[in-house]
Amino acid sequence: xxxxxxxxxxxxxxxxxxAQSGLSYSQLRQFVQSSxxxxxxxxxxxxxxxxxxxxxxxxxxxxxxxxxxxxxxRTLKALEALQVSTAGMPAPVxxxxxxxxxPRQPPxxxxxxxxxxxxxxRGLAQAYTxxxxxxxxxxxxxxxxxxxxxxxxxLKHDEIKMRVSYVDGREDYETLAVNDxxxxxxxxxxxxxxxxxxxxxxxxxxxxxxxxAQFRWARHSLLRGHPVYVxxxxxxxxxxxxxxxxxxxGGEELRAIRSGYTGLVYIGKxxxxxxxxxxxxxxxxxxxxxxEARSRLDFDFIDLSGEAFLLPLKAQAFVRSGRLLTRxxxxxxxxxxxxxxxxxxxxxxxxxxxxxxxxxxPQQ
Length: 364
Fold this sequence. Notes:
The chain is an alpha+beta fold. Helix content is about 25%, strand content about 35%. The chain has ten helices and 13 strands. Helix 3 runs parallel beside helix 5 and helix 4 packs antiparallel against helix 5. It is globular. The N terminus is likely disordered.
């Protein structure tokens, strides 16, 4: 499929401008934003950018802004290639109308303020699991794959519904149905890409003193209406607890490695709590069946028996193994306090609609 007809006027104008004097700062921003809003294919957007001429320097901050909007990995690589080719060129000059329409970001917090933000988030993260009540919820995992490795067409593999119990800091998973067919298969028997640890393990590990994650200022932003501080994060392999595992099903050899990672952490300005963690594996050794792994975990405040608790809202896991790409989209629904009588009925499950997608991340 080609690009959406809605964006053709912009594409035509941009192409004419590029042929004459190069793609302008305003045109580039408008094109990238429109491509995200209209959910154009990542491959098409990347191929278009590869053919463009840009005569201003593309900064790290501009690319970070585009990442915040939700661009795909192929688009990111195309922008990074443009960044290399424009190094040393003049800084962009926004149009007067754009400068008036887009408010400037406030200055970053001072180094001392940044340290305090991180330390407050660390303290809240370390106390997080102790504050949580025992509860149950429904985890819905929609698994997709792309055998071409080009991110051209994601095909749905299956949909798994699981009852997750969080009791005294321990997570237990019970499979309820696969593709709406009741099953008794255990979690480890499902095969394919699976995910655990969303209920405090990832958060606790990131801020553990043994992990010694390094944080660096990125930007101010908004996330689902919450004003947030965004920081880059980096954890080296020798301090990381992130384990990548492949095989173990159908006679495949079970292989596991520990991986370092980079990413972003979003901290709520009002709550001081972590609202999103984005991770990308680094230093995966050659010969390991998995060449790329990324994950994103979102928290939000959820009502639990009349009291608001910060709980996992949704997550995404992306893995590349050779030409095969897999993507898991997870949602956490129907939270309730754990009791002997706590149940999740199939009537409730069947009536659930998927969570709405996030709007492109605006900059503040």
